[in-house]
Amino acid sequence: MSVPSPARLSAPKITRILVVDDHPMIRERLAEVIQREPDLKVCAEAEDRQRALELVEVSRPDLAIIDLTLKNSHGQELIKDLRARHPDLPILVISMHDESLHAERVIRAGARGYITKQEATRKVLQAIRTVMSGNIYLSEKMSQRLAVLAANRPRAQSGLPVDQLTDSEMRVFELIGQGFGTRQIANKLGVHMRTVETYRARIKERLNLRDAGELLRCALHWIEKGSTRL
Fold first, then answer.
1. Residue 152: is its pLDDT beyond 70?
2. How far is residue 62's CA from residue 12's CA, in Å, rounded to a whole number?
């Protein structure tokens, strides 16, 4: 009986990616960057919303990378469509537009990350892997901007389901709402990243949230408005 080789046993899981951009050269360049990585593969490309929706059904990607400016439509419309039809599909936005104007909006629409096309290749790959690990990807600048906005807003009133959270969970929830990622929260609280991940899981369970995207939108909404719909 043959024994599997160590190489086969340690082969990485391939993340299949759909790239949606209305510029062929951008799609080709992004695909070239992705294909260099042993654990990443471009499984399909589209230039508009309708074709992207068709390809998701056919190719079943693990991640969708979407530009905001698409042929005959806006990327945010596609994000909403994908969230409605494929709620478990992670979405990363790569755009030429300033993230300070669009990042928070697309996160609310259902994306799990935002990065500009001006960023270096390593940042793009970092964004892909951050989103695929279940976290939200935003630049340091955007995270700080959200933190400043949150600091200048009045705290929401109590009496909401977030009162179920422990003090530690509430602190993590607030930091998520201020735009900080798992590593940043761990550094701020002086705990291990696994501890923060445990808190995130408990928060999602207590507030009946499905994924990291819903958690971030809920936390942002709490920080900004203290909505009674939380």
1. no
2. 14
Q: Give the model confidence (pLDDT) of 32-83 as tens digits.
A: 999 999 999 999 999 999 999 999 999 999 999 999 888 877 788 899 899 9
**What is the DSSP secondary-structure string of 97-166?**
S-HHHHHHHHHHHT-SEEEETTS-HHHHHHHHHHHHTT--B--HHHHHHHHHHHHTSPPPPS-SGGGGS-
CATH value at residue 163: 1.10.10.10
Calpha distance 138→180 (Å, rounded): 8
Written as six digits, the tokens of 136 are: 């939200």
Domain interval for residue 212: 143-224
- Those residues whose C-beta lies under 8 Å from the C-beta of residue 211, and which sit 6 or more positions away, are 87, 88, 112, 134, 204
DSSP state of 1: -
Which two tokens mark 142?
């955007």
Structure tokens at 41: 């593969």
* Three-state secondary-structure class, residue 210: coil
Model confidence band, residue 11 (pLDDT cutoffs 50, 70, 90): low
The two tokens of residue 179 are 């735009």
CATH number at residue 134: 3.40.50.2300
